[in-house]
Amino acid sequence: MARTTGSHSDITGPRVRAAALTLFAQYGFAAVSMRQIAREVGVQAGALYNYTPDKQSLLFDLMNAHMSELLETRADLPPTDTPLDALEAFTRFHIRFHSERPEEVFIAYMELRNLSAENFEKVERLRRTYENQLEDILRAGIANESFKVADPKLTTMAVIAMLTGVNTWFRQGGRLSLEEVEQIYWDMVRQAVGA
Amino acid sequence: MARTTGSHSDITGPRVRAAALTLFAQYGFAAVSMRQIAREVGVQAGALYNYTPDKQSLLFDLMNAHMSELLETRADLPPTDTPLDALEAFTRFHIRFHSERPEEVFIAYMELRNLSAENFEKVERLRRTYENQLEDILRAGIANESFKVADPKLTTMAVIAMLTGVNTWFRQGGRLSLEEVEQIYWDMVRQAVGA
DNA sequence: GTCTATATGAAGATAGAC
DNA sequence: GTCTATCTTCATATAGAC
């Protein structure tokens, strides 16, 4: 994979981000050096600075892209008729989207403290936007009396923690298919909100 | 806080661990240097090596002590009569124990990948022991038909993720007391297992 | 038990040649 | 756009004096 010299900006940029993604997820941002990323890409460390002003921006770009894609992908889902349908769609979407991107999800959660203050703010804003979408669904279901929820903010956090937790143990080709996991979690969420 | 010289092994050892705990929780194991820990304790970096053979052992000791205390504290709880009582006791214990130790909990989850292979195995064994206690409760409730649970292993992971998630947002003196949070989570867990 | 000093290596980032 | 070389700082860990 090592290259000698030449012009590869179209391809090298994405490869730098891909290498950083995998290495950050495996060893953690602080434990990964620019030299390690460069080795994975097949360039010298200095060359990385053609694609990122510094290591911090590399981390932020990964997290920002992930959160933005989360919001965009969800915005493209078909609309639903009832709060119950909306909650089911949210549950299944969350599990599916996150299970397809284990490295991004891991980094987005584990490396928050390694963001600069201003980058942290930006990522947090996106995360809160996503959480508010679930909270709105819960409030709609409370309003039309299809859910029995004592505190929608708290239930929002509980449901998201529960669903994101799937990533810590789910493996493709394991005992249960993703379809089965989705169904069982949806049953639990539905019962938890008293629907 | 800086000291010149003298004999302080009784007090310095715990202070080294306390400093490491706080710093690891705040900045992450890989981002914290032995010099930083020493500065916090008020000694020179070399002196730390009277209390730990290396940085890795410092991390392992913190995580191992935390997991051991989790199991010991739970073992001291009074016995329960029914699976429903046992599940309620587990839920309330988990929230309470973890909310009292936010730094230890954060490290125990975030720094697993920075453990050596053999230290990781030891910590993982303790964690699985704890998870199995919840799984046993769920199986007992399924057996006597007080719970409706499709898959006890999966529900174990879901409940633990949900409960541990409290630590990401709960703050003493916030909108809800810990008592209220406990009660609302217990309602959700009870409903989620169909009891 | 703690200090100072140091061995040894690696980190992030930049400069200038090609 | 990538290379080699380097600046500057910092890391873990150890040695030996007190």
Characterise the protein shown here.
- Two copies of one chain form a homodimer.
- The first copy, chain A, is 68% helix and 0% strand.
- The first copy, chain A, has nine helices and no strands.
- The first copy, chain A, has 195 residues and is an all-alpha fold.
- The N and C termini of chain A lie far apart (55 Å).
- Chain A has two domains: 9-52, Arc Repressor Mutant, subunit A, CATH 1.10.10; 56-192, Tetracycline Repressor, domain 2 (Orthogonal Bundle).
- At the A-B interface, helix 7, helix 8 and helix 9 of A face helix 7, helix 8 and helix 9 of B.
- Chain A binds a DNA duplex (18 and 18 nucleotides) through loops.
Describe the structure in brief.
The structure is a homodimer of 195-residue chains. Chain A is mainly α and 195 residues long. Chain A has helices at 9-27, 34-41, 55-75, 83-99, 102-110, 117-143, 152-164, 166-169, 178-192.
Radius of gyration of chain A: 20 Å
Mean pLDDT of chain A: 95
CATH fold description of the largest domain in chain A: Tetracycline Repressor, domain 2
| Multimeric status of the protein | homodimer
Largest interface, with counts of residues having CB < 8 Å to the other chain, equals: A-B, 34 and 34 residues
Q: N-to-C SSE series of chain A? A: HHHHHHHHH
Total E-strand runs of chain A: 0
Largest sheet of chain A: none
Beta-strand content estimate of chain A? under 5%
Query: What ranges of chain A have pLDDT less than 50 throughout 5 or more consecutive residues?
Result: none
Helix content of chain A: 55-70%
The second-level CATH architecture of the largest domain in chain A is Orthogonal Bundle
Number of helices, counting only DSSP H or I runs of 4 residues or more of chain A: 9
Judging from the principal axes of the Cα atoms, what is the shape of chain A? elongated
CATH superfamily membership of the largest domain in chain A, which one? Tetracycline Repressor, domain 2
Structural class of chain A: mainly alpha
Distance between the termini of chain A: 55 Å
